[in-house]
Design a protein that fits this description.
Blueprint lengths: L1 E2 L3 H9 L1 H9 L7 E4 L4 E14 L13 E2 L5 H5 L7 E11 L2 E12 L2 H9 L4 H8 L4 E9 L27 E9 L2 E9 L8 H5 L11 H4 L5 E2 L1 E2 L8 H23 L9
Parallel strand pairs: 1-10
Antiparallel strand pairs: 2-3, 3-4, 3-5, 5-6, 6-9, 7-8, 7-11, 8-9
Length: 272
């Protein structure tokens, strides 16, 4: 059952918005281990799966989506990348802290030029580093955000958090967003799933399984049962559209700041 967000849910989500954006920005780092300022503990990026496909034949009579698995090295496949002969990579990673998965990111990357294919697949540049290296600022499109189980997506193999040891209990509400980053010849659709809103209010308590702050677990949330909160950009009601606006505005402000830092040569984030 889907329904809109009430004022209490909106304020609770807004409370953790900046921290959500800070944490999700770390997804673009190429390092496997780094220290997160929010949790003040090391975070490890673990690859769940990564599948790359290309068109083994020429551009004639090609299906809409490549189906031949790509294994490297394969110079011919890299140089054949083109708008009518794309390379598609589907991957999922876990950000883990103190044995718990704090974010699951599922992405679909579409590459249509040899240059981008070489950097991303052979040189192993991270998504954000691609934009920095090419000197391009990606167009950002927020597709949807919500509370509860993440929705299905035609462009992702797995869209909900994969059950793994250390994952938050299923009863805790997930917070998720799905968006696109696009430049010419390189397009990414990313679904980020955070296992619980409580992690943004009581970070260390949540990590150490000490329970969440009382203000974070209200009777309203406890009584929702199996209800799912779902926000679609195209169908959101007026009273729920505020969350989409705040999430989108927050990201755009962060992006604008990083662009200014990039232009002045004082970039802070990895992907700028």
């Amino acid at each position: 059952m889907a329904r809109g967000l009430g004022s209490r849910d909106f304020l609770s989500s807004f409370h953790g918005l900046r921290k959500l954006l800070d944490l999700s920005a770390l997804l673009y780092l190429h390092k496997e281990t780094f220290s997160d300022a929010f949790f003040a503990r090391p975070i490890t990026i673990t690859l769940v799966y990564s599948n790359t496909f290309y068109h083994a034949t020429g551009p004639s009579f090609l299906p809409p989506t490549p189906t031949t698995p790509l294994t490297l090295p394969n110079p011919r496949a890299i140089t054949s990348a083109a708008p009518d002969c794309p390379i598609i990579q589907k991957r999922q990673v876990h950000l883990q802290c103190s044995g718990k998965v704090v974010c699951t990111a599922t992405s679909t990357v579409r590459i249509t030029s040899p240059e981008f294919a070489h950097l991303f697949l052979e040189e192993k540049y991270a998504i954000g580093q691609m934009f920095s290296h090419m000197g391009k600022v990606p167009a950002f499109e927020l597709l949807s955000v919500g509370l509860g189980p993440a929705p299905s997506s035609a462009s992702a193999e797995k869209t909900s958090v994969t059950p793994t040891p250390g994952m938050a209990p299923a009863g805790e509400q997930q917070l998720w967003r799905r968006y696109k980053l696009v430049v010419r010849d390189f397009e990414c659709e990313i679904l980020e799933v955070f296992p619980a809103r409580q992690m943004f209010v009581g970070a260390e308590r949540w990590l150490d399984n000490l329970g969440s702050p009382s203000e974070c677990v209200t009777s309203e949330v406890a009584g929702q049962g199996k209800e799912t909160y779902l926000l679609s950009v195209g169908t959101a009601r007026p009273q729920t559209f505020g969350l989409i606006f705040v999430l989108g505005l927050g990201f755009l402000l962060m992006l604008a700041f990083e662009v200014s830092m990039f232009l002045t040569g004082r970039s802070l984030l990895c992907y700028i």
